[in-house]
Amino acid sequence: xxxxxxxxxxxxxxxLVFFASFLYxxxxxxxxLVPKSIDSAPTVPFWSAxxxxxxxxxxxxxxxxxxxxxxxxRWITRYIPREAERSTYTLTASLLLIALFVWWxxxxxxxxxxxxxxxxxxxxxxxxxxxxxxxxxxFLINHFDLFGLRQxxxxxxxxxYTPLRFKTPGPxxxxxxxxxxxxxxxxxxxxxxxxxxxxxxxxxxxxxLIGIRLEERDLLKAHPEYAGYRKHVPMxxxxxxxxxxGGGRIAAVGDGN
Length: 257
Description:
The chain is built from 10 helices and 2 strands; from the N terminus they run H-H-H-H-E-H-H-H-H-E-H-H. By secondary structure, the protein is mostly helical. The protein has a two-stranded antiparallel sheet. Residues 246-257 have low confidence and may be disordered.
């Protein structure tokens, strides 16, 4: 019982760290009510900022990709309880995100600046739509399984873990990766696009496109039926004038799952 309680507590703490970093990210990327944001005043030379920011984003991307691979999961569960694997992924990603907030270097320079109130409202609306899409997509998948709480709860009450049923709810019938679609809105919908924000958007978009390939490779191995789902449902952009025909079980859930 002590082990069960310890693993459960670890999972809850990991989730709370994630939730705090998630909330701060809304303000950080959107320059809203946080002490330091993506566009705070520059403090280091431009090219030093480019190097530091690229390194921070690169470390975050490598962690996301490496820790999400089945081979890494098999390796790490030799040293930690299997039920804590997802919480460990969540905690590591959250701590690296916090490190990015702390050491991020604003760069100055304006790529575009929308001053019209209507245009600003539209872009902030799209920004909010992106975050809403991200959050809703996690609950359609199973929010608590995605971030490790379901696993630690089941072991606390002595029940075996059962994989999620494979289904295609709501937006998963239109695109395979609605979670990533939400992130793209978050990264690009801004009234003021600075050099730092552009670097952030470009590198994170590149990571998404690479990450999708890695993720779908694993999904094809784990779920043979995913090949048919991928054939009929677009990756990120819905087909005009028609709906995807993805049936069966849920496939691409994004963000390292």
